[in-house]
Specification:
four-stranded mixed sheet, alpha+beta
Length: about 240
């Protein structure tokens, strides 16, 4: 069996597991992220799974159930990321960007149920993007920018940090989620001033196994400047 088949089988087992544990509270299980909209990388991608629920309150033991789902496979379980919630309730882990992904790209794994809930508004989408800049992107940049060599544990966060500008700008302008490939293609269409596209192109090529993370690192990209240029672009696009 190849890695793709192994991952497909693991995700199917995860879906069956949650179905058996959550019963009537579970509407559907979905493939999300690059598993759903393309560009999955065995090295750099998470295994994103979404759970759509219909209960009025969060099911008990969700954290334990997710931990047990990770144990279904010793290798792929480390990559499993579970997004879950009832879209009508303010609980769970189903942020606005992941709701977009679920609506536009979610691949149902159990009953073929297509999600039906209100699309996040422009304000909600952009608000979450702004929070992600401050909470997820910027905090890692000083450390990554100061590296003198790229250790194995830093390869994934480094490639993600470079590609984030593409994902940010694509979602900001289009109020949607899509693949890294589509986001980078969009960057070439809009040509944000000051943003160096070469390392972003190479980071995408790295995900596609056309070059290595060390090749990308060798460009010595100024990650802080890339961030500033991307933020400047979206500030002008409001």
């Amino acid at each position: 069996m190849n890695a793709h088949s192994d991952i497909t089988n693991y995700v199917a087992r995860v879906a069956d597991y949650f179905n058996s544990q959550l019963g009537s509270a579970l509407v559907e299980v979905y493939k999300l992220g690059s598993l759903a909209h393309g560009g999955f990388s065995n090295i750099y991608s998470d295994i994103d799974v979404g759970l759509l629920l219909n209960s009025g309150e969060p099911p008990e033991r969700m954290s334990e159930l997710i931990a047990e789902a990770k144990l279904l496979d010793g290798e792929y379980g480390k990559k499993l990321s579970v997004f879950w919630g009832n879209p009508d309730c303010a609980w769970g882990r189903l942020p606005n960007l992941d709701r977009l992904d679920l609506l536009d790209h979610g691949v149902p794994l159990l009953a073929g149920y297509k999600p039906k809930f209100s699309r996040p508004t422009k304000s909600e989408i952009r608000g979450e993007l702004l929070r992600s800049i401050e909470k997820s992107w910027k905090p890692r940049l000083p450390e990554l920018n100061g590296l003198t060599e790229l250790a194995p544990e830093n390869r994934k966060p480094y490639i993600r940090a470079i590609l984030y500008a593409a994902r940010l700008i694509y979602s900001w302008d289009n109020l949607a989620m899509d693949s890294n490939d589509r986001a980078v293609e969009y960057l070439h269409q809009v040509q944000p001033p000051g943003l160096d596209l070469k390392p972003i192109d190479m980071a995408l090529a790295c995900r596609q196994e056309k070059c290595t993370a060390d090749d990308v690192f060798a460009l010595r990209t100024d990650l802080n400047r890339q961030c500033e240029s991307a933020v400047s672009y979206i500030s002008g696009a409001r």
